[in-house]
């Protein structure tokens, strides 16, 4: 922690002396915050401690920038951010800082949601960011609704809903109703996320893994075609299928 103070001072100096840093606002920094968050995720998935350290530092820089901008406008300071966080953590851990008893992680999570409602939220869904990626947003909404008792009982019933939504999507496609196709496709994705939840799978993580697998295999196909002096556009699907199967076995 001895480096945190000097780091804060350094970021404040950058705000004063660097033309680019000086012109940044909460609004202009939004894309950078999102980008750095995803880079942290990639670092965590890589399992590389050095990369994790670097990317967490980049994300911390975004937090410090926003705190500095707020302090300059007299809105709040980094100390205010830390103080509010400490208060929240103490209040939401009564099993540590109070006399509440819990049986395990599940009950801790249930109590967390109840405490949020006592803080003045009118809905279990309040506080859920609308800009979350779609699959993650669907998962979080379903988790919060389930915490309120609105949930399926068995995974088999959820899969039955998936099959139902597939039939409805097929019907919409056959009817050629573009708007209904979009709606039914969304319903199918939502039900698949629900099924993933019952299987204890993070759908966002599962899709990212599949995307990574596709990317690796397609890159292999491109590389092999390049050795032959060709591009995918200059090759047949049969050629690429053969290379794709090779990639699956490498």
What does this protein look like?
The chain is mainly alpha-helical. It folds into 3 domains: 4-87, MazG-like (Helix Hairpins); 134-201, Orthogonal Bundle (Helix Hairpins), CATH 1.10.287; 205-248. The protein has helices spanning 4-17, 19-22, 26-46, 49-72, 78-91, 94-97, 105-118, 134-147, 155-175, 178-198, 203-227, 237-248. α9 (155-175) runs antiparallel to α10. The longest helix has 25 residues, at 203-227.
Descriptive tags:
about 250 residues; mainly alpha; Helix Hairpins; 3 domains; about 75% helix
Strand segment count:
0
Poorly predicted parts = none
Helix tally? 12
Name of the CATH homologous superfamily of the largest domain: MazG-like
What share of the residues does DSSP label as strand, in percent? under 5%
Percent of residues in helical segments? over 70%
What would CATH call the class of the largest domain? Answer: Mainly Alpha
Our Rg estimate from Cα atoms comes to 24 Å
Structural domains: how many: 3
What is the end-to-end distance? 45 Å
Topology, element by element:
Layout: H1 4-17, H2 19-22, H3 26-46, H4 49-72, H5 78-91, H6 94-97, H7 105-118, H8 134-147, H9 155-175, H10 178-198, H11 203-227, H12 237-248
Helix pairs in contact: 1-4, 3-4, 8-10, 9-10, 11-12
What is shown here, in short?
With 250 residues, the protein is mainly α. It has 12 helices and no strands.
